[in-house]
Amino acid sequence: MKPRSKRLVLVGGGVALLVAAVALVLNAFQQNLVFFHTPTEVVAGKAPSGKTFRIGGLVETGSIRREADGITVRFAVTDTAKTIPVSYRGTLPDLFKEGKGAVVQGRLEADGTFRATEVLAKHDENYMPPEAAHAVEQAHKAGATVAQ
Amino acid sequence: MIPELGHFSLVLALVLALVQAVVPMVGASRNRLTLMAVGRPAAQGQFFFVAFSFACLTWAFVTSDFSVEYVALHSNTATPLYYRITGVWGSHEGSLLLWALVLALWTVAVTVFSRHLPDVFLARVLGVLGWVSVGFLAFLLVTSNPFERLLPGAPEGRDLNPLLQDPGMIIHPPLLYMGYVGFSVAFAFAIAALLSGRMDAAWARWSRPWTTVAWVFLTAGIAVGSGWAYYELGWGGWWFWDPVENASFMPWLLGTALIHSLAVTEKRGAFRSWTVLLAIGAFSLSLLGTFLVRSGVITSVHAFATDPKRGLFILFLLVVVIGVSLLLYAWRAPRLAGGGGFAFVSRETALLGNNVLLSVASASVLLGTLYPLFLDALGMGKISVGPPYFEAVFVPLMTPVVVLMMFGPFLRWKGDTLGPVLRRVAPAFAASVAIGVGTAFAIGHATPRTVLGLALAAWVVLASVQQLAARLGERAGASSAARLRGIPSAWWGMWLAHLGVGIFIIGVTLVGSLNQSLDVKMRDGQRAELAGYGFVFRGVQDAAGPNYDAARATLEVSRDGVAIATLRPEKRLYRAQGMPMTEASIDIGPFRDVYVSLGEQLPDGSWIVSLYFKPFISWIWLGCALMALGGIFAAADRRYRRLAERSAPAGAARQAA
């Protein structure tokens, strides 16, 4: 090969590789984004059905209940305006508590229960997950507009 | 008094950093030796004052001086002494002071090991490092002063975050910072080279050991960090693609590309402008990592500080560093064209492929980490990008990297013929496909990913053996001891690091395919089974620590009726903050970990217990250890020491092997 065509092959190969990589990244991106919705949005039907997403807010006081197996937990997540019942199988994070902020990831069942596969709480006593704080803030804003 | 001394000495350090940033640079541009000579003492003085300041803060922690706000927020009289000392870098202000200290330490190391560098070049290197120091010291003093007084002083401190009260956190941050900040030396060398227009093999040769040592620290730091996440978070995982983890992984990926590209620049004079760009990129990603972790812009299980003002300052620093260096690059790099030519089939091509793939991988992590931030900032909704994204991207990008890794060492520089190389590689390749498929079926987990992982790992191991044999065969006639001694340390470094990648893949593949876990409700005398292991719950006792109360469970682990271990997981409640903590208990074995963590107590008196069976998980860290050890061997190569005695030859042509 002439040096010129050699360089062409090298550059062409590099570009092809990059294009393949970008395609790969974008494709993975499309399939694996997890959206966040506030309980109010979920009740309003804005959340996707049959797809994993996150909700966040406060764990409603008095809502935590364990089933007989001890492993399945039911609780409710609220943004102070709307409340979503959640069920989860597994150990809860250390700072998961009633009245505190939490973010859960999972799917919405047909009966309106959110089946969580992951429960996130912050590891600092005074800190609320930003998504949970956002949900409560949104609900307050919406509440304020209605009151006016 | 002592905190004020610490504060003042930080101000003095900033003044000296300014001197170090300006004077030698001016000297270099006017070619005045007296001005250039100022860099060395200024850097050493700066190190002295930062170290003194760090000692003052440590003193405040040791003596529990709660009139210092930072101490009051992150320590307690009941905290054990060693956690009071590590509490110094337990949060934002102190960890930035550690950052500054580590940078000063690297700078002093440059002044000590720089006798062979030309004066002009050293002056510019110290000048660039001085500017970085100025940025960080100003950041400390303006937004994050750790010596801020709290008046009146608190009677008792809030204590260090219990998650950080762990031996892993004693060494993880210093190691990680040594790595992060160490890339600033590679960066300074690159900028100095751009400024002087001297970017030859000698420059790459000076830069290589520094970059490799920084990479070793970063590798070790990441490994310790992921080990900490594994046992301390109590969930039995080791890597979550959490933004904070990604923050250190991005510079690691680019740093890995950099040490390979530096090899090409040193040996063949090629890739020069690309190497410079990588050095700039690796350091920028280190700064970005600091920004992500310290600004609180990301949602993460372990993001600590949250203060937008600070985030803005680091962002500004980041923009200045990237902007200025890219401008300089755009202005100077066109002169760098050239270097040794190479054929399509050559070691250069293999290393080019490695570089492109590692950079793309780094960019894909960057995208996954930053995209949610952008969307949020633009008010387009909150999203998260989870492990499935990173795994979907990583496996296809890293598989060819490993394949290239197997070809590279067999290929000659400049040009080679494909046929003989393929014939050398083919047997190991065929054998590893067979091993991959066979093992996957033998362990009853024949998924494409398991087969791929096992085959790749087998190939790395087989090819490593083959490479060693080939290397030993090179000097026929010599005694085997002489042959072993004849292999340069740098070659052992490459060999060990590549073998480490293979061991790492075995760990990741097997723990991913075969790990099992079970959450179960248990009470005294009750038994549970997981993966052939029996667990008998023997009740819970109170166990008080220095600054916490704990419930400690006892579980007897047996296999086929033979007792193996007694595990004692704890549920702790740290008194100062009333914060609960899960302390897992692990029986570590060469081929599997048995991991137990204690959940909460139920009203009926029974406990929730999480049981995990993690096959081959230690191999992940063993692989990292081998990679780091390889880096040490590479940096310790005799060539770099010889170079301290006589100045390095200029020009790449003579280096061509």
From TrEMBL, chain A:
NCBIfam families assigned to the protein according to its UniProt record, in alphabetical order:
PRK13254.1-1 (NF009727), PRK13254.1-3 (NF009729), PRK13254.1-5 (NF009731)
This one is known as Cytochrome c-type biogenesis protein CcmE
A Pfam family (short name) is: CcmE
Please classify the protein's predominant subcellular localization into one broad category.
membrane
Cellular localisation: Cell membrane; Membrane
Membrane topology designation: Single-pass type II membrane protein
Listed A to Z, the keywords are: Cell membrane, Cytochrome c-type biogenesis, Heme, Iron, Membrane, Metal-binding, Signal-anchor, Transmembrane, Transmembrane helix
Ranges in coiled-coil conformation:
none
Organism the protein comes from: Thauera sinica
What Gene3D superfamilies has UniProt attached to this entry? Nucleic acid-binding proteins
Q: Which family does it belong to?
A: Belongs to the CcmE/CycJ family.
Which gene codes for it? ccmE
- Residue spans, topological domain Extracellular: 29-148
> Which residues make up the binding site for heme?
H123, Y127
Q: Which residues lie on this side of the membrane: Cytoplasmic?
A: 1-7
Automatic annotation (TrEMBL), chain B:
Protein name as it appears in the record? Heme lyase CcmF/NrfE family subunit
Primary site of residence: membrane
Molecular-function annotations in GO: lyase activity
Q: What Pfam families does the database record attribute to this sequence?
A: CcmF_C (PF16327), Cytochrom_C_asm (PF01578)
Q: What's the family?
A: Belongs to the CcmF/CycK/Ccl1/NrfE/CcsA family.
Keyword annotations for this protein, in alphabetical order, are: Cell inner membrane, Cell membrane, Cytochrome c-type biogenesis, Lyase, Membrane, Transmembrane, Transmembrane helix
Q: How does it sit in the membrane?
A: Multi-pass membrane protein
Q: Which InterPro entries match?
A: CcmF_C, Cyt_c_assembly, Cyt_c_biogenesis, Cyt_c_biogenesis_CcmF
Localized where?
Cell inner membrane
Q: Record's superkingdom?
A: Bacteria
Q: Which residues form the Cytochrome c assembly protein domain?
A: 89-295
The free-text function statement in the UniProt record for this protein reads: Required for the biogenesis of c-type cytochromes. Possible subunit of a heme lyase.
Residue span(s) of domain Cytochrome c-type biogenesis protein CcmF C-terminal: 315-638
- Which residue ranges does UniProt annotate as crossing the membrane? 6-26, 47-64, 96-114, 121-142, 177-197, 209-229, 249-265, 277-305, 311-331, 352-374, 394-413, 425-444, 450-470, 491-514, 616-636
